[in-house]
Specification:
Layout (H helix, E strand, L loop, with lengths): L2 H7 L2 H7 L9 H12 L2 H9 L5 H16 L5 H32 L2 H25 L3 H28 L5 H5 L1 H16 L11 H6 L2 H10 L7 H7 L3 H12 L4 H14 L8 H6 L4 H16 L2 H14 L7 H26 L1 H24 L6 H19 L1 H11 L6 H30 L3 H19 L8 H13 L18
GO molecular function, one term: D-glucose transmembrane transporter activity
Pfam families: Sugar_tr
Subcellular location: Membrane
């Protein structure tokens, strides 16, 4: 047997003993590449989610004034609500469109190329929303939000791909946390920019909505200085020299050899296989557990109650005696809380592992659901309960950021090899955006029907996810993509087949 294949046929237990990977500090060039990818990627997703909240009243006044100028009558309350809901929800529709094409673009244009091209949507959106007040057209806001959503959908699909493929195996989790850190950073920045002391005044709302162009310009200035994904260059394009050059820049000369060896093994493992389409993943029985896992985790990420917590935050802050004009500052506190936990998760993920963090996060969220239900039920019995509710809000956000908020995207990267990964992100992204849309449509009815007991529904979701992860999802820390595939294959295979005593692990679940 050729020597280059020997390691792949060894049992994972033996390989684990031989593995000498060490956790090292990332190369400065690698950190800058992560920043460049994230600042114009998922940072914009978080920013556009939160920045629309501050100017709500001002945009509604603009819609009413524009309607009056056009039709010489005030718009009905129902019509105003419908138009505002359309402006907000277009972001979700755009995200779904972006997620459905992001994987295909990442194969055709490359990971870095897609991220750079994606800025066209952001810049166009910023221009349209910035001009909407000047030209007196609220339709430009609808189109702008749709384009912002498309930008976010593509970024959420392609950016984790790029981060996962440029990072060394020992730092893949920490680098992958850049997605979550920059989402929460974008949310916090949007909340801060919407304060009255900055751009939260009525005359500034078009400027506020157009500031999404700033991170786009930053990415266009910085990212071209960094290479394409080395895995994409070698496996998809067959550019060995380009791959070596990219690895030297990202990992440094000393560490580029080990990374190249891992990529070459994955390439040998995928000889004769083309990039899969999303529908091909559904028909591939060898990938069904990985696919089921990312679908369930992405559904749970939206249905675990985090949206309900933000919905109730305003009410709880008022009940706690915080003046109405000070509530925006309390809301900034929730954004800062989530940002801090994302950073904490990034520091812990290579020590504790993915499985411990995501399970621990869902367990803590389950506990918070119970306590939040109780504190809301007895809200009027004692002045202490509103403050306990505030504690539950921050504890829930901390738990979400510590596990599900950050680890879900990393697992989507790690559970698939190169030929299936773009399609997996397309499926995961589409499921995530559809779940986002579903919860935004159904949640008001759940709250109306169950009131504070709606958190018992979210308790059930969190508990079921913990059970599934415990029994099905393997730990992926410090493992190559091929090793993770082999572990999925062997763990499911051993349930149905008796061991032949050879201890051999299949080279690929696709072969």
């Amino acid at each position: 047997m050729p020597k280059e294949y020997v390691d792949e046929y060894e049992p994972l237990l033996v390989r684990g003993i031989k593995d000498k990977r060490r956790l090292k500090l990332p190369n400065k060039s690698l950190l800058l590449a992560v920043f460049a990818a994230c600042v114009g990627g998922t940072f914009q997703y978080g920013y556009n989610i939160s920045v629309i909240n501050a100017p709500t009243m001002y945009v509604q006044n603009f819609i009413n004034q524009t309607w009056m100028q056009r039709y010489q009558t005030n718009i009905s309350q129902g019509g105003l609500t419908l138009l505002w809901s359309t402006i907000v929800s277009m972001f979700t529709l755009g995200g779904l469109i972006g997620a459905s094409v992001g994987g295909t673009l990442s194969v055709k244009l490359g990971r870095r190329g897609t991220l750079l091209a994606n800025n066209a949507f952001s810049l166009t959106a910023a221009l349209l929303m910035g001009l909407s007040s000047t030209v007196g057209s609220f339709e430009l806001l609808v189109i702008g939000r749709l384009l912002s959503g498309m930008n976010a959908g593509i970024a959420l699909c392609v950016q984790p791909l790029y981060l996962g493929e440029i990072a060394p195996t020992a730092l893949r989790g920490a680098m992958g946390m850049g997605t979550s850190v920059f989402i929460t950073g974008g949310i916090l920045t949007g909340q801060v920019m919407g304060l009255k002391e900055i751009l939260g005044k009525e005359e500034y709302w078009p400027i506020l909505l157009s500031t999404t162009c700033i991170p786009a310009f930053l990415q266009l200035l910085i990212l071209p200085w960094f290479p394409e994904s080395p895995r994409y260059l070698l496996i998809d394009k067959g550019d060995e020299e380009g791959c070596k050059k990219a690895l030297r820049q990202l990992h440094g000369l000393a560490d580029s050899g080990d990374a190249l060896e891992d990529i070459e093994k994955e390439k040998n493992n995928l000889v004769g296989f083309q990039a899969k389409k999303p529908w091909e993943l559904f028909s591939d029985r060898s990938l069904r557990w990985q696919l089921l896992t990312i679908i369930l985790l992405n559904i749970a990420q939206q249905l675990n109650g985090i949206n309900a917590i933000y919905f109730y935050a305003d009410y709880v802050f008022r009940q706690s005696g915080i003046p109405m004009d000070k509530i925006p500052y309390a809301t900034v506190g929730t954004g800062a809380c989530e940002c801090i936990t994302a950073l904490t998760c990034g520091m812990l993920i290579e020590c504790l592992g993915r499985k411990v963090l995501i399970m621990g996060g869902y367990v803590l969220m389950s506990i918070c659901c119970v306590f939040f239900t109780l504190t809301l039920t007895f809200q009027d019995y004692s002045p202490v309960f509103p403050y306990l509710s505030m504690v539950c809000i921050f504890a829930f956000i901390l738990s979400f950021g510590l596990g599900p908020g950050g680890v879900t995207n990393i697992l989507t990267t790690e559970l698939f090899t190169q030929n299936a990964r773009p399609a997996a992100f397309m499926i995961a992204g589409s499921v995530n955006w559809l779940s986002f849309f579903l919860i935004s449509m159904v949640f008001p009815f759940i709250v109306t029907g169950l009131q504070q007991y709606c958190f018992l529904v979210f308790l059930a979701v969190c508990s079921l996810v913990v059970t599934y992860i415990f029994f099905v999802v393997p730990e992926t820390k410090n493992k190559t993509f091929v090793e993770i595939q082999n572990e999925f294959q062997s763990s499911k295979r051993n349930k149905f087949c008796s061991s032949d005593g050879a201890g051999t692990i299949l080279l690929s679940t696709s072969i």
